[in-house]
Design brief:
By secondary structure, the chain is of the alpha/beta class. Helix content is about 30%, strand content about 30%. Among the domains are: about 130 residues, NAD(P)-binding Rossmann-like Domain (Rossmann fold); about 110 residues, Sandwich (Jelly Rolls). The chain is built from eight helices and 19 strands. It has a six-stranded antiparallel sheet, with no helix packed on it. Strands 2-1-3-4-5 form a five-stranded parallel sheet, with helices on both faces. It has a five-stranded antiparallel sheet with strand order 15-14-17-12-19, with no helix packed on it. Helix 5 crosses helix 8. The longest helix has 24 residues.
Length: about 375
């Protein structure tokens, strides 16, 4: 299958190209701003689907809206209809319009005209047309300081540059670029369109938030390198925002240092803290060194020896019952501490021992729930 992409060098176009390149059954044919629209009929003869992503949204001259949005779309419609007349092939067109098409401004009018041209081709030649009135699309490779608050905030905050928030309470609706591309691919693979009451294709999920909330959230991503407390980045909007923020990091910021605490026993390093799922750390111990020697009332921990050999010893704080076990980096095995049992870990090998540690809560110096009681 050959997929023609207009606006291939744009934000959505670059992401689409990458996704298509991951498939062996699709070849992307790119049409960019540098190409002559007169090439469209020839490209259409070999295309099986068109992703019409080209458009103008921040021109020097408002008249460019017409040329970049309406005129190009009309040229594409003429080529698609001509192909249908000549060969009977009805090449599907997926078009990225904008919610601005419902607004009375030059950009919106040009997008509305493009929509009408495509729907006209659908009526006269039964061309399969899928029009998306997209809200604010965000994700990797979106141009900052242009027309995306998310891109601008991510770019500037990642570099320690100021951002400007005129109205923190201003609402904004967002859709993630990967979700847009996923819907495109579904349509390319023959999925049935999912349209709203006005006949426009729908991408889900869409996220409603405010400009102030966006700014605060992204500022929090940057601050997490100092506090080590990571946000809930596993699902939904925050997952997509965090991935977007990280994509704007300059190369020199790909890595960052974390505090290291050392004493004659070895070192202790906190790696990551979460709001409600504890923290991750690691520590080392020299040969013969014992660490721990305390108990907890509620706090729980998981230890994983990743290098060396360790002996864990436990004693029940009420009954005096004891338990002992040995584990090593050669056989991954999680050892859990149990509330009410004092415990320690000794390096019984000849080399330095390295142990990964998860605790179910972030360490609170005011209420550490850690009471010394050597075995």
């Amino acid at each position: 299958m050959k997929a023609l992409i207009t606006g291939a060098n744009g934000f959505v176009g670059k992401n689409l190209q990458l996704h298509l390149s991951e498939r062996k059954d699709v070849e992307a044919v790119c049409f960019t701003r540098a190409d002559d629209p007169a090439r469209l009929p020839g490209l259409l003869r070999e295309a099986d689907i068109v992703f019409h992503l080209a458009g103008v949204n921040r021109p020097q001259d408002p008249t460019e809206f017409v040329a970049g949005n309406l005129d190009l779309t009309m040229a594409l419609c003429q080529a698609v209809c001509a192909e249908a007349d000549a060969t009977g092939r009805k090449v599907p067109v997926i078009y990225t319009s904008s919610i601005q098409a419902a607004s009375d401004n030059p950009y919106g009018q040009s997008k509305l005209g493009a929509e009408e041209a495509l729907f006209g081709a659908a009526r006269t030649h039964q061309i399969p047309v899928h029009v998306f009135r997209l809200p604010n699309v965000f994700g990797k490779w979106c141009k900052p300081n242009y027309n995306s608050a998310v891109a601008t905030f991510c770019h500037n905050i990642a570099r320690g540059l100021p951002i400007k928030v005129n109205d923190p309470a201003a609402s904004v609706t967002l859709v993630y670029v990967d979700d847009v591309i996923e819907r495109f691919m579904q349509l390319m693979d023959g999925a049935v369109g999912q349209v709203d009451a006005d006949g426009f294709e729908v991408v889900t999920p869409q996220y409603g938030t405010t400009v102030g909330e966006l700014a605060d959230r992204i500022q929090g991503f940057r601050a997490s390198r100092d506090t080590l407390i990571i946000d809930h980045v596993g699902t939904g909007l925050v997952r997509a925002l965090y991935a977007t923020y990280v994509s704007y990091l300059p190369e020199e910021a790909f890595a960052y240092a974390v505090p290291q605490y050392g004493d004659p026993r070895g070192i202790f390093v906190e790696m990551l803290k979460t709001p409600d799922c504890g923290q991750f750390s690691f520590f080392t111990a020299h040969a013969g060194i014992t660490r721990g020697g305390h108990y907890h009332h509620t706090k729980t921990e998981k230890f994983l020896v990743i290098k060396g050999e360790a002996r864990f010893k436990f004693r029940h704080m009420q009954t005096g019952q004891t338990h002992e076990l040995v584990t090593s980096g050669n056989k991954p095995e999680i050892v859990e501490t149990v509330p009410g049992w004092t415990h320690d870990i000794t390096n019984i090998g000849q080399d330095e021992m390295v142990v990964m540690l998860w605790a179910n809560e972030v360490f609170d110096r005011a209420r550490p729930d850690t009471f010394a009681c050597p075995l």
